[in-house]
Every structure is written in structure tokens, then in C-alpha cells.
Write a structure and sequence with these properties.
The protein is of the alpha+beta class and 335 residues long. It contains 12 helices and 10 strands. It is 48% helix and 14% strand.
């Protein structure tokens, strides 16, 4: 268990020396030379990032903690399967969760703040759907990389276990699930599991889902949208993307969550999936997929908080309860 960031290796001199030695070796292997001081702009319990200036532009080194080692192998696989879908991969060390990547361009978040236009998201979501369709046949290979299995039937089976995790849910605590919310979740559990079971029988195939798909994890580089930060990724029903994705769009562009612009973007994402099912069926699967999405986020945050102790835990202690509360609200509004 980690109590402070100092319990992690990210700022340890010996660890940094080892990481920089690996970086230097990989730069030499591909014919690049260092050019300037390296910075460490990102330190989180689950990962850290170093900016690596070179004679051919900036590279970024990323290291992830043991519970998310699959991110390195998955990013490498995606760079092979779908070139220009992720940042260009320079080197990977899957056993330690290390990646060396080229700069992927300007984040979509900054672009949207300048342009205040949803048209880029229309293109991003359509491209993302096409990528998910291409990856559906590789679902087993993705799972074999260690990516979590959060298909609807699997999640349905594990929801009972989640509700028993009092440490993660913090039932009755100020930053946790209330006793009443916990009780209501228990009452609704059979109905939620039934909805997830129906989603498991969908004609829409399970595939890779980023599970944190927002405008801070998409960059634009020479007309290619690059998706990065795959640590929360899972194999699940693809429409899970709509929860975080559409909420991110509404937040950045100050749009109503149920406004016509958001509906238009939802439809742009769904359109490529019409190859698998008619539009009414696709629309019918959106709401249960949003419930599934909230569960997927709960399981992702549970993985984090179960690795942490106070005081490091304090910043993220409410995350599992927040996701389960969202699940409850969605379930209670679904007939």
C-alpha cells in the first residue's frame, strides 16, 4: 500500500537514473541525440511522465505502476494494429510498464477552447467507432495482454462483490456512499444485472474501450487524432465511451448534457455501428451501456484506491462512491 508519493519509485534517484539510462539507450538505437534538460511534468500514484528533448523534437517517457502494466503492451499493440491512432511509439519495455513516445501534437481540449466548435468531436467519435470495429476481432488478443475484462456479463457477476467492498465505497462516510444509497443499490442490483445480461447478448461486439475518453486524452497531429493514456482501458461494450466522452464535450463547450449538439455527436458515433444492428436497437442499448460505463469507472477507481492508504488516498477516496452513485442514478431513471 502506498501512503505518500515517496513510497512510489517515480522520484527515487536510483529509479530515475535507471529510466534515463534506458531512454538514452533507446535514443541511440534509433539515431536520436538528447537536446536539453529533461523535465518530469506528471507525477501520479499510477504513472509518471518525463519530457525528453531530442535533436528531432520532444519525446515522452511514461512509466506505469504494476496494476496497470498492460498499458505499455496495449499501446505497443495498437501502434502496430492501427498506425496513427496512438502517438508514434519509439520504444517499449512491457515488463516494467515503460513507454517512449513521440509528441502527439496539441490536445483536443486546447483546440476546442480556441475554436468552440463541436465539428472536431464529430470526426473524432466517428473515427473512434471505426477503430473499435476494427479491434473487435482482436478482443481475445487484447485480453491476453492483461487488459481487464469488463464485458457486460463479467461486470454483472462482479457487482455484488463491489457492493461488499466497504473500504472502496466508504459507506456512511462524508466522502462515500450513504447508507441509503447503498441500500437502494442492493435493491436495484437484480434489475441492473438483468439489463447487463441483455446487453451481453447484443449484436454489437465487445471491443477495446479507452474508459477515460475525454478531450485531454486526444491530440491532433497533422490531421490525425491520436488517442493516448490507455491505463484504464478494458474490453467491454463499445457504447461505454459515450458516458465520459459526451460529458467531457458538454463540459468543455458549456453545452447542455441533453442538448441537440450532444445528441448529434452521439448519433455520429453510433452511425458506423449500423453495420451490426438497426438504429432503434443501437439507441436502445445506449442507456444500459451508460450504466455499464459507470460500473467500469467504479472498477477502475477501485483498483486505484485499493492500492492507497491515507494521506495519499485522501484525494481519490470518493471516486468509487461517485461512480457507483452515478450508476444508481442512471439505473433509477431507467424503466
Amino acid at each position: 500500500m502506498y501512503k505518500t508519493l515517496d513510497d512510489l519509485p517515480w522520484t527515487d534517484e536510483a529509479w530515475l537514473a535507471n529510466a534515463n539510462e534506458w531512454i538514452d539507450g533507446e535514443l541511440a538505437r534509433v539515431g536520436l541525440t538528447p537536446a536539453g534538460l529533461r523535465e518530469q511534468p506528471h507525477i501520479r500514484p499510477w504513472s509518471t511522465v518525463l519530457r525528453v528533448p531530442t535533436n528531432d523534437g520532444d519525446l515522452y517517457f511514461k512509466a506505469v505502476w504494476p496494476p496497470q502494466l498492460h498499458e505499455a503492451a496495449l499501446t505497443a499493440a495498437l501502434s502496430s494494429w492501427l498506425p496513427r491512432f496512438t502517438p508514434e511509439l519509439i520504444a517499449v519495455r512491457p515488463a516494467t510498464g515503460w513507454l517512449l513516445l513521440r509528441d502527439a501534437g496539441l490536445r483536443l481540449r486546447e483546440i476546442l477552447k480556441q475554436e468552440q466548435d463541436i465539428s472536431r468531436w464529430r470526426e473524432v467519435l466517428a473515427r473512434y467507432a471505426v477503430a473499435q470495429i476494427k479491434l473487435a476481432d482482436r478482443a481475445k488478443s487484447i485480453l491476453d495482454l492483461g487488459v481487464p475484462d469488463r464485458r457486460p456479463a463479467v461486470v454483472a457477476d462482479h457487482l455484488t462483490d463491489l457492493l461488499e467492498d466497504s473500504r472502496a465505497l466508504r459507506v456512511g462516510l462524508p466522502d462515500g456512499l450513504s447508507v441509503d444509497e447503498h441500500s437502494r443499490m442492493r435493491e436495484l442490483l437484480p434489475r441492473i444485472q438483468s439489463q447487463l445480461a441483455a446487453l451481453a447478448d447484443s449484436d454489437v461486439p465487445a471491443t477495446l474501450e479507452h474508459n477515460d475518453f475525454h478531450d485531454g486524452n486526444v491530440c491532433l497531429l497533422k490531421n490525425d487524432y491520436r488517442v493516448f493514456d490507455w491505463g484504464d482501458a478494458c474490453v467491454t461494450h463499445p457504447f461505454v465511451v459515450l458516458r465520459v466522452g459526451l460529458r467531457s464535450i458538454a463540459h468543455t463547450l458549456d453545452l447542455a448534457a441533453d442538448g441537440p449538439e450532444i445528441t448529434e455527436l452521439r448519433d455520429a458515433y453510433l452511425e458506423p455501428w449500423s453495420a451490426f444492428a438497426p438504429r432503434p436497437q443501437l439507441l436502445a442499448e445506449v442507456q444500459p451501456a451508460l450504466i455499464l460505463a459507470a460500473a467500469c469507472r467504479a472498477f477502475s477507481w477501485r483498483l486505484v484506491v485499493n492500492e492507497l492508504d491515507p494521506p495519499l488516498l485522501d484525494e481519490w477516496a470518493d471516486t468509487v462512491a461517485y461512480s457507483v452513485r452515478s450508476l444508481l442514478e442512471l439505473a433509477e431513471t431507467t424503466t
